[in-house]
Sequence to fold (529 residues):
Amino acid sequence: MPLIKLFRRYEIEVAFVFAILVLLGAGLSSYRALESAKGSVGWVRHTYQVIGSIDDLSESLALMHSSGRSYVLTGDDRYRRLNRDAVTDFTRANLQLIDLTRDNPEQAAQMPEIKRLIDLISQRSETVITARANYGADRAIDLLRAGEGARALEAFRQLATTMKDAELRLLEQREEQASQDFLTTQNALAAATILALILTASAGLGTVRDIRRRKTAEAELFLEKERAQVTLASIGDGVMRADATGNVTFLNRAGTLLTGWPEDEAVGKPLGDVFTVIDATTRTPISQRMQVAITQGAVAPLPETALLVRRDGREVPIEDTVAPIRDREGKFTGAVNVFRDVSEAREASRRLRHVAHHDPLTGLPNRVLLDDRMGRAVAVADRHSSKVALLYLDLDGFKLINDTRGHAVGDELLKSVTTRLLACVRECDTVSRMGGDEFVILLTAVNQPEDAAITANRVLRSLSMPHAIDGAELAVTASIGISVFPDDARTPAELLSNADAAMYEAKTSGPAKYVFYPAPAVDPEQRRA
Fold:
């Protein structure tokens, strides 16, 4: 009797204990089933990646082969560039396929043959393209007709099909296993739910509902927290969190790499110690935007010149996003900062700007940059009542050298001319290539036209010296037209047009001369180099 009374007295507690034990057992079973299912899904994803890599490799090789044939038939350099891009793509796809098949001895055993066929296809494609470029279409077509590249490509396709078939068989097995694992998980969860309902019903439906809601909420919160932690640890951007006092409370793995601060050392320190940002132009510190977010709720974006000063003193260009953290009442309790290294992006932007404004052969400013500098120089000269001179140069004898000795020698000669022109002017002046064998020299802060004549004579003397190119001494001269602002031109366009006209007048007068627009300002005999 005492035991019965004791049981009745603690009936609810006993029911809860049994319910908890059942749930723990079911949870453990479900967890194991879920882990197994996750592993199966991972293998299914891996199989799809292998198939995708095989397809990418096949497409890249086919593109390389077809673009090579197209180049042979048309001679269009676009197909040659397309061929190089295809080489890059299949190299990347091949490396990815090697990495993905390491776990499969059967597939890994095929990779040496894959590599041999890829090398053969690549070599034959390069041989055909080189033959087309150096010896003409007939030689290249003869190589194509030999069919070695096509046979290698067909052999690769057959081998790729064999590998794909093997992966598809694996895929079928793995998908079946994943389905079975998920079914097991569903059954375990269903059984756990039924048993929990039966046991907890004896303790009262109301209590069961409360406990279930609490456990569900806790499980979801835990899962959400785990997801957040895994996500923050996995992303490539740095993530930093601070509390309302401005002290660091969290720093993810990417953040430790960017700042140089391990998380255990950063946590608890003031933001200014861990996250210092300066302006690359002014070298002045930028205010702590996270602190501003904590106190004001909104911040301005970082300037493009922002640099993060690492713990070791190195500086890293960054971009960031700052957001305040609020509680249920809307009160600011902290802030989070997501920041990233933009070194490569800024360098790519700088290179693009340079390419857009400079001649690819000589590195000199092109017409776009010249127009901008002419506009600025004319505006400054107009404000200060000074002069600007423009020298328009055309090389005499360059075309003959370029035609007889080849474009490679011609290009080297243009580079040599560029070096000499730069040595003849000041740092504040501009030497620009207009294209072909034409150059422009922009002289700023000119006191009188004779200053331009002095520079022209210096250029003619420098260019008259032989150029040592490819083991030979080559000689060129120049015809120079000179226009002066504001004497004979009021706009940059007029300045360039007048100098061009004067250059043609100098060219008709004989080599190695300069001529002012519209009439000679110096005795013609003095214009000879």
Observations:
- The first strand starts at residue 238 and ends at 243.
